[in-house]
Amino acid sequence: MDGAVLLTGANGSLALGFIECLLSHHPQITLIATVRNTSPDQDPNTANLLQLIARYPKARFHLEAIDLGNLAQVRSFAGNLADQISSMKLPRISAIICNAATFSFEAGQVLTADGYEATFQVCHLSHYVLILKLLGSMNKVTGRIVLLGSIVHYPENPNPLYSLRPGFPDNMDDLLHPAPDPSTLVHDKGFQRYATAKLANVTLAMDLNRRLQKDDQLSGITALAMDPGGLPSSRAQAGQKQSARRLFMIIDFLMPVLRHMTRMFRTVQDAGQDLVAVSVGADLQGHRGYYIGTKQAAPAAVSEYREAQDKLWEVSWRWAGLTAEETVLQNAAPIV
């Protein structure tokens, strides 16, 4: 596979594992990597990314700034990228990897520049907009859309890290404008918001496949959601409560053994290799659905319900202020 790969959150822990594997095994691919801050002097994570890229002097690499907490920036970025592709300054997109995420467990609710709850906008809504606006710039025969899921997205499964389960509220507007968190549930509400955003990603992947397969021009594009596994060495673990951080430190210490015994926990290198496989690997070309690493699995039941898919699509479209002219996907605009 050649073409371009668009990766959001490119200076995150999983992204670095992905990029190292991609550049090692697929040097012909153009990587369009997005981060919030492209300055290595201002962002140490971007500095780590550029140090990695420097090891591959022949890499076809483009670093772009985008704040997924600002829908105007998302639109502008997508429009500029589409223009570069249509003018053949960049190859068509082979894969869109919706990797960027944020959460706030201990600090309570955080709002974006748009005034929306940050976890849901960054993890889900802005990626929804990116995907729809860039479908026309994708390889329409073998293109892939990869959304990041998680073991925590299942409403039917309890999780020992928090007491609340993910799910779509009766009033979907609560996803972007939640009520204040009770003081005793700040952490658990934050975790619930993160898990629900992951549920939204999985639901979108299932929904996209149905919609793409009905579109004669886009039916070759596939969508899947992937759980990379728990990443105990990820910088994201710093946002956990102290007891969880200690647990993940122990797990990380044991990873040289655990990586051969379970796929529940992964090193960023192994998870990055899996992400390369599902996004550009030949073995998974044309595959759809939900994956844990490179193994197909059952997603949350609600993610496959047509009613839940339509409800999430309609409110996401409305929240983003999209119009039918902004995407090539047929019948994308909800029927009001």
UniProtKB/TrEMBL annotation:
One of its GO terms (molecular function) is 3-beta-hydroxysteroid 3-dehydrogenase (NADP+) activity. One of its GO terms (cellular component) is lipid droplet. InterPro entries: Ergosterol_Biosynth_ERG27 (IPR051593), NAD(P)-bd_dom_sf (IPR036291). Transmembrane segments: none annotated. It comes from the Eukaryota. This is NAD(P)-binding protein. It comes from Aspergillus sclerotiicarbonarius (strain CBS 121057 / IBT 28362).
